[in-house]
Specification:
Blueprint lengths: L8 H17 L13 H29 L1 H22 L14 H27 L2 H26 L6 H11 L2 H15 L3 H28 L2 H21 L1
Bound molecules: zinc ion.
C-alpha cells in the first residue's frame, strides 16, 4: 500500500511522526532572540498547544464513533486510565509555568520526563489517525507538529536559564517527542491489521490527550495569565483545528 506521496504507507506514517518530533526543536528558536519567556507568554503558548490538541482529539473521536461508538468510548476510558497511571508512577509533578524558570534541576528533569511520557499518546494518535484514512492522518500530524512547538518552547524556557546551549535545548526538545515516531508505526500496524481495534485506538489517543489538556496544561495556563485570554486562545484554536480537519 502506498500513500498519496508515493511512499510506502509505513514510511509515510514514520516520516509524519518524525516531522512532529522535529517540530518540537523549533520551540528553541525564539530563545536566539529573547533571554527568557514571561509566564504570560508561556501560558499563551501552552493554551494554543492545548486548543490544537483538543481539536485533534475531537477529530479522532468523530472518526472513532463513525466506526463504533462503544469501542471508542472504552478506548477513551483506557486512554484516561493510561495518563492517571503514568502520573501516579511519576508522582504527579506538574510543572508550574509561572515558576518554570526558577525550578530546581530535579524538577526540570521531571518536567522533561512528563513531556516525554505524554508524547507516547501523541505517537499513538498519529499512527491510529492514519489507520482512519490519510487525510485524517495528515490533519492530526499537522496539529501535533504545531502543538509541539510551544512544548519545545516550554522545555527550552526551563533549561536555557541554566546556561544550557540553545542546540542542547533543541536536542532535548526533540528527544521529548521521540516516542512519537517510535509509537506511530506499531500503532498504525495494529489498527490497520486488526481493523476492529481502530475505534479503540482512536478513542485511546483522544481520551489520553483530552485528559492531559484538562489536568496538566490548562490549570497552569489559567494560573499564569488572564482567564479570558486563555479561554479565547483555547476555544479559537480548537475551532480552527476542527474546521481545518473538515476541509482537508
Ligand atoms: Zn504534546
Amino acid at each position: 500500500m502506498t500513500s498519496a506521496f508515493g511512499l510506502p504507507i509505513l514510511w509515510a506514517v514514520f516520516l509524519a511522526a518524525l516531522v512532529t518530533a522535529l517540530a518540537t526543536g523549533l520551540g528553541a528558536v525564539p530563545f536566539a532572540f529573547i533571554r527568557r519567556l514571561s509566564p504570560r507568554g508561556a501560558a499563551a503558548a501552552n493554551a494554543t498547544a492545548a486548543g490544537l490538541m483538543l481539536g485533534a482529539s475531537l477529530g479522532l473521536l468523530a472518526e472513532g464513533v463513525h466506526h463504533s461508538p462503544s469501542r471508542t468510548f472504552v478506548g477513551a476510558a483506557l486512554g484516561i486510565g493510561f495518563i492517571l497511571i503514568t502520573q501516579r508512577l511519576l508522582g504527579h509533578h506538574e510543572p508550574e509555568i509561572g515558576q518554570l524558570t526558577g525550578v530546581n534541576a530535579r524538577r526540570a528533569l521531571l518536567f522533561l520526563v512528563v513531556m516525554t511520557v505524554h508524547s507516547f499518546a501523541e505517537g499513538v494518535a498519529v499512527g491510529v489517525s492514519f489507520g482512519g484514512g490519510e487525510s485524517l492522518g495528515l490533519a492530526i500530524t499537522l496539529a501535533l507538529a504545531i502543538h509541539n512547538i510551544p512544548e519545545g518552547l516550554a522545555i527550552t524556557a526551563v533549561m536555557r536559564p541554566r546556561g544550557i546551549s540553545l542546540w542542547t535545548c533543541a536536542f532535548w526538545s526533540v528527544f521529548s517527542s521521540l516516542p512519537q515516531p517510535l509509537m506511530a508505526v506499531p500503532a498504525f500496524l495494529l489498527v490497520d491489521r486488526v481493523r476492529p481495534a481502530l475505534p479503540f485506538g482512536l478513542g485511546f489517543a483522544a481520551g489520553a490527550m483530552v485528559y492531559m489538556v484538562l489536568i496538566e496544561i490548562l490549570p497552569e495556563a489559567y494560573d499564569a495569565a488572564e482567564s479570558r485570554t486563555i479561554a479565547l486562545l483555547v476555544g479559537g484554536t480548537t475551532v480552527i483545528m476542527l474546521l481545518f480537519q473538515q476541509y482537508l
